[in-house]
Write a structure and sequence with these properties.
Layout (H helix, E strand, L loop, with lengths): L8 E7 L15 E5 L5 E4 L10 E3 L9 E7 L4 E7 L5 E11 L1 E4 L4 E5 L3 E10 L7 E10 L11 E2 L8 E6 L16 E4 L5 E3 L4 E7 L5 E2 L2 H4 L4 E6 L5 E7 L11 E2 L4 E4 L4 E2 L4 E9 L4 E3 L3 E2 L14 E3 L6
Parallel strand pairs: 12-25, 17-22
Antiparallel strand pairs: 1-11, 2-3, 2-4, 5-6, 6-10, 7-9, 7-11, 8-10, 13-14, 13-26, 14-23, 15-21, 16-18, 16-20, 18-19, 19-23, 23-24
């Protein structure tokens, strides 16, 4: 089982003529304990080199928000500023509800595209009648990726694992088990052992990485947002999602340029999952709506094929 890692997030800010303070998100890292060649013990939140023996202590944590909005300005004239911590664009939608005596610039509702790793002023608010107080709810929703009006078609990619490896598709397009929403309609699940090398199916830029979770299960409420993943942004604006990766197994970092076929992580069984597998999807933002789109895999000796349930997929060399 699985659930898309990066679905639309909605945050509601309630302001009654007071300064808004955003709560900080609790977080913690896994602690690695190891001894170096000089006999000195180290305790760190960074995984040591692969040839070093170590012990890992898992520290439960909450997912860290990638979209953070704060209030600047004054009590009478608040200004809302957003920081996009993705390494790629996001689309933001702001709406006012329960507004009394409020004017905004620009007028709301409105949508904004904020580049990756950028801070941007979104809106300023004030009282229509300055002699009176004002109150409102400011609703924010976000979707990763720039808006693309139509679904991108004709996508042909490499299988997301090493050449020569072969694994079965356990859930294909429009799977009725857990792929019933637009963001996962054309996702697939590929069964594979924990620790299998995951390779980039297409060239792009690493937009987001999460690798700090080490548990999985079928309780959606507990595990739904705890799947380790890599999101890679492609030149055409689509994004590849590689999910349920193993703890501390990602070899690439946000912002890095990735070539097709490059090893990026190891598979796992984290998050909302009933067994070891890779959840893979090509997604795009169609305008405040995250959808998945169909794709085909290159083959070694024939035309590209669309993945189907129970089909064996074989990794090949190539560039995309």
């Amino acid at each position: 089982m699985d659930r898309d890692v990066m679905n639309i997030r909605t945050i509601i800010f309630i302001v009654l003529a007071t300064v808004l303070i955003l709560p900080s998100t609790a977080s913690a890292k896994n602690i690695y304990k190891y001894q170096d060649e000089n006999g000195i013990w180290h305790f760190t939140d960074r995984a040591p080199a692969e040839d070093v023996q170590f012990e890992a202590v898992y520290m439960e944590r909450d997912p860290e928000p990638r979209i953070r909005m704060r209030q600047d300005g004054t009590k009478q004239s608040p200004v809302y500023v957003l920081f996009n911590d993705f390494w790629g664009p996001v689309e933001i939608e702001l709406k006012l509800t329960d507004a009394i005596n409020v004017i905004s610039e620009p007028p709301l509702p409105a949508r904004f595209v904020v580049p990756g790793q950028k801070e941007q002023i979104l809106v300023g608010l004030g009282a229509m009648d300055e002699r009176l107080g004002f109150q409102y709810r400011l609703n924010m929703a976000s979707v990763p990726g720039r808006p693309i009006s139509k679904p991108v078609d004709g996508i042909v990619i490499l299988p997301p694992f090493a050449p020569g490896e072969q694994f079965p598709v356990s859930q294909g397009f429009q799977g009725d088990k857990t792929h019933a929403t637009p963001d996962s309609e054309f996702a697939i699940d590929i069964s594979m052992p924990v620790g299998t090398a995951i390779h980039a199916a297409r060239s792009g830029t690493v937009m987001d990485v999460e690798e700090d979770f080490n548990r999985g299960g079928t309780d959606l409420e507990e595990y739904g947002d705890k799947a380790n993943h890599v999101r890679i942004l492609h030149q055409d604006g689509t994004m590849a999602l590689y999910a349920h990766l193993d703890l501390a197994s990602v070899f690439v970092r946000p912002g890095a340029r990735i070539r097709a076929g490059q090893m990026i992580a190891r598979s796992g069984n984290t998050g909302f999952s009933s067994g070891p597998h890779l959840h893979f999807a090509i997604q795009q933002n169609t305008g405040m709506r995250l959808i998945s789109v169909p794709f085909k895999f290159e083959t070694a000796d024939g035309p590209p094929v669309a993945p189907e349930a129970l089909q064996m997929v074989q990794g090949i060399s190539g560039s995309r």
